[in-house]
Amino acid sequence: MLVAAAVAMSVDELARGGSGRIHIRAIGERALPLAGAILTILIVVALLVTTLVGLIFAVAFLVWHAITTQTCVIERRSARAALGRSRELVRHHAWRVFAITAVATGIGLATGPIVGLAVLFASSASLGAIDIVSSVVYAVVMPYVSIVLALLFFDLRAAQSGSRT
């Protein structure tokens, strides 16, 4: 959550012509609203996935709220407002948001275990070392997923305002 927030702030600063530096104090100011939004998403999804029909709605709910972190951090919105803003931006682009989010997140989540398996079969390293390698790869790759989602947020916002070229 905090890495995605930091990446969103950094991408926003770069888009404004800044250095892209991460400001810890600014992240701290957004932590509570962001935690509230993420907690809301987690609770709703946990309740929805208890049934087969609910699983479909859970996926739809996740797509509608795929850029909640970015709306909360970049636009400095409350938890509830960030959830609504994400839905508003995704509304007419749900399939595109689903595809981009699924591919980026899928690659991000799969990279660590795939590298771990490759190291397992290619070396005689201990399982602990392989786990560390896999975790480091995961930690390096996930900020790139956050960059993709931040750029998606900017693209959706530009499409809404009609200024997308």
Description:
- The protein is mainly alpha-helical.
- It has one domain.
- It is built from seven helices and no strands.
- It has helices at residues 2-15, 24-48, 52-64, 68-74, 79-90, 94-122, 127-161.
- It is globular, with a radius of gyration of 17 Å.
- The two termini are 31 Å apart.
- The model has no long low-confidence stretch (mean pLDDT 92).
Question: Which features characterize this protein?
Answer:
mainly alpha, 0% strand, 165 residues
Strand content: under 5%
- Molecular shape: globular
Mean pLDDT: 92
- Report Rg: 17 Å
> What's the total helix number?
7
**Fraction of helical residues:** over 70%
**How many domain regions?**
1
Which class do the helix and strand fractions yield?
A: mainly alpha
Quaternary arrangement of the chains shown?
A: single chain
List segments where confidence is low: pLDDT < 50 over at least 5 consecutive residues.
Answer: none
Q: Biggest sheet, in brief? A: none
Q: Which H/E pattern describes the elements?
A: HHHHHHH
Compute the number of strand runs. Answer: 0
CA-CA gap between termini: 31 Å
Describe the structure concisely.
It is built from seven helices and no strands. It is mostly helical. Helix 4 packs across helix 5.
Protein topology:
Elements: H1 2-15, H2 24-48, H3 52-64, H4 68-74, H5 79-90, H6 94-122, H7 127-161
Helix pairs in contact: 1-2, 1-4, 1-7, 2-3, 2-4, 2-5, 4-5, 6-7
